[in-house]
Amino acid sequence: MVGTVLVTGGGARIGKAIALDLGRRGWKVAVQYRYSTDGARQVVDEICDAGSQAVALQAHLSDPEAVRSLIPQAIEHLGPVTCLINNASVFENDTIDSLTDDLWHDHM
User: Fold this and answer.
1) Domain ranges, residue 81
2) Are strands 54-58 and 28-33 parallel, antiparallel or unpaired?
3) Angstrom distances, CA of residue 14 to CA of 8, 30, 89, 99
4) How many domains does the chain have?
5) Looking at residue 16, which CATH number applies to its domain?
6) Dmax of the chain from CA atoms?
7) Is 31 exposed, middle or buried, given 0-12, 13-18 or 19+ CB atoms closer than 10 A?
8) Cα–Cα distance between 83 and 64 in angstroms, integer?
9) Beta carbons within 10 angstroms of residue 104's beta carbon
10) What's the rounded Cα separation, in Å, for the pair 33 and 39?
11) Three-class secondary structure of residue 1 per DSSP
12) pLDDT tens for the chain, residues 1 to 108
């Protein structure tokens, strides 16, 4: 069964590979990104070139309002979301010595 999937962190690395694979299999893909604008647009273009539909959605996942808006945006562009791949992660340049409580929270 294919449907519509939201892939968080879908503009780079593992999320990109997941989004592209699902798009090539016929899924409609909402690609969430925080900073990877160019990567997310490239993923969307590749999915559309493969014959499916996709949309790039920018959102900071630690912002509750941004998170609440993701599904409605995906539905508006692609229809009901039937699957979530929660892949997003934080890539901060920190060490155990520089890790603050806030950074720890972001990583978790």
Assistant:
1) 4-107
2) parallel
3) 10, 15, 10, 25
4) 1
5) 3.40.50.720
6) 48
7) buried
8) 20
9) 10
10) 9
11) coil
12) 899 999 999 999 999 999 999 999 999 999 999 999 999 999 999 999 999 999 999 999 989 999 999 999 999 999 999 999 999 987 667 778 887 887 776 665
